[in-house]
Amino acid sequence: MSRWRATASLIRACAGVAVLAALAVVAGRPDLLVLASPLLLHALAALRGRPTSEPVVRPLLGTETLREGEGTTTGVELTPAAEVEQVVLAARPHRWMAARPPAGVVARHVRPDERVARVQLPVATLRWGRRDVGDGLVGAVSRWSGFEWGPVAVPSRPVTTLPVPGPFESRTATPHPVGLVGVDPARRRGDGYEFESIRPFHPGDRLRRVQWRVSLRTGALHVTSTQAEEDSSILLVLDSGVEVGASGGVHGAASSLDVAVRAAGAIAEHYLGRGDRVGLRVLGSTSRTVVPASAGRLQLRRVLETLARVVPGENRDLDPERMRFDVRAGTVVLVFSPMLSQVSVSATTKLASRGLDVVVVDCLPERVDHRSGDADVATAWRMRVLERRALLERAERHGIAVVPWRGPGTLDEVLRRLRRRRPTAAGRR
């Protein structure tokens, strides 16, 4: 624990007074006492305001959950502050966190009537993920700069940065809705808004469905038949075992994992906003990896928080023999992966073999900068691209559609093709 100690200015003032007083007595120079009087007044005022209690440090954090690019404040609170004149905070710089000022050092003058001294540093988060911020050193100075306290270490606080979902919109219905209430046209007749046909009246039909023009023309009562509307089930599978490309944060270039996380968040936000059910399975992360399918705004928060916990490059959960997917029939599986490993292809084909509609969203950036200029690295990457092409062909042979992520409309064409297929009975494992 740090204690109050005399500052260099107080020591110099006391030493100056002693030297000038000694010279005045020895040399018979009373004018030197006049020169020593300001130093004496400063030393007496500083000694009179000597602190009697040690401050207690409490870390501060504006909010624990942010979106990429959003800002908050981190800082400390010192109690009591009646004997403190100046507080200085030096926060430790962290990657993907921007501070103002950039050095992360802020100071604040404390008024005599303040009981609590707070010093805050504005920070902004630049990339999704979970990280600790706010750690650093804090120090204080008493009145008249006579005594200093610190520096004392400030504990860090965890901050969760949710990914900013990329722009996405789809006007195509999912292939096989399997729920009870939703906006997707089902394959069966029922009470909905999607026109199906005009047919003769049957007992039990509602009067508001009567098609009067056709009925008057044919002389027989006809009604408008519609398709039922149901909600769909979407399973998002995120491959975090491989990250290609250097991430530049929310305002810079995107790595393959950046593309995957933001695309998964965008699709989850889109379908959950329509009332569908969305689940998430992360391949390669060692923390929470499964979010059961559900609907609602709370489910979107669960999905985004799980995406924020993804650890880039982790591959401890990529054993194909141990992968289990609890998926109901009719679920559309969207796999977000650069498709650079045998394991991701094995997991994808395993889902397709169960009769599920599987779509691979290719998250490999259009341009990959190796930043090395090494000819061997470039050759190795070209060989890796050829292996990736073979993996994609293998996936397509199993009936898996592969589409690159392009934002709005990425899934429209492939969903239309899947909807024209006959539904298959995919059971649980």
Q: H/E order of the elements?
A: EHHEEEEEEEEEEEEHEEHEEHEHEHEH
**What is the β-strand count?**
20
CATH architecture of the largest domain: 3-Layer(aba) Sandwich
Top CATH class of the largest domain: Alpha Beta
Structural class: alpha/beta
Globally, the shape reads elongated
Q: Report the helical percentage.
A: 25-40%
Spatial strand order of the main sheet: 17-16-15-18-19-20
Q: Quote the distance from N terminus to C terminus.
A: 58 Å
Mean model confidence by pLDDT: 82
Strand content: 25-35%
Can you tell me the CATH topology of the largest domain?
A: Rossmann fold
Supply Rg. Answer: 34 Å
Low-confidence stretches: 179-186, 425-429
Specify the biggest β-sheet: 6 strands, mixed
Tell me the domain tally.
4
Helical run tally: 8
Secondary structure layout:
Layout: E1 5-6, H1 8-27, H2 31-48, E2 56-61, E3 65-67, E4 71-79, E5 84-91, E6 97-99, E7 105-109, E8 117-125, E9 129-133, E10 136-142, E11 147-154, E12 157-162, E13 184-200, H3 212-218, E14 222-230, E15 233-239, H4 256-273, E16 277-283, E17 290-294, H5 297-308, E18 332-337, H6 342-352, E19 357-362, H7 375-397, E20 401-404, H8 412-419
Parallel strand pairs: 3-12, 15-16, 15-18, 18-19, 19-20
Antiparallel strand pairs: 1-11, 2-4, 4-8, 5-7, 5-10, 6-8, 9-12, 10-11, 13-14, 16-17
Helix pairs in contact: 1-2, 4-5, 6-7
